[in-house]
Amino acid sequence: MKTYSAKPSEIERNWVVLDATGQSVGRLCVEAAKILRGKHKPTFTPHMDCGDHVVIINAARAIYKGNNKADEPIYRHTLYPGGIKQVPKGELLEKRPEYAIYRTVKGMLPHNKLGAKILTKLRISAGEEALAKHEAQLKGAAKD
Known about the structure:
Helix 1 (25-37) packs across helix 3 and helix 2 crosses helix 3. Helix 1 links the parallel strand 1 and strand 2. The strands form two sheets. A four-stranded parallel beta sheet has the order 5-2-1-6. Strands 3-4 form a two-stranded antiparallel ribbon. The chain is α/β, with parallel strands linked by helices. The protein has helices at residues 25-37, 89-95, 97-108, 113-119, 129-133, and strands spanning 15-19, 53-57, 73-77, 84-88, 122-124, 142-143.
C-alpha cells in the first residue's frame, strides 16, 4: 500500500459559506480552519494547500461562550519600548468582528509560508454583503 500525495493538478477547490449568527467564535473558527486546510477531504496532504475557499458572513453576530471569557485581554506590541497594548476579547469582537475572527483562524493554521498562503482563501464579513460580492463563485457553494 502506498501513501497518497495530492498533486497540484488534482486539487479541486470549492466555496463554502459559514454563517456566524449565534455561533461560538472558537467552534466557528475550528470549522473554517479545517475547511481552509483541506482536512475534510480524503485527498488531504499536509504539505500542500488542498483546501477550499471560506466565506464567513454575519461575523458581528458571533459570541464568546464557555471558558473563552469576553473580558480576557488580547495583547499586541507596537515594537516601541513600553508599547504593549491590550483590548478585551469582547470589545474587539464588537468593534472589529472581522479582525477578531481572522485572528482566531490564523492561530489555528500552520505558522509558516503554507499557513499564510492558506489564509488568503478566507473572506470575512460583518454582515451579509459578502454574498453579493462573491455571487458568481458561490453559485454552487455549500451553506453550513
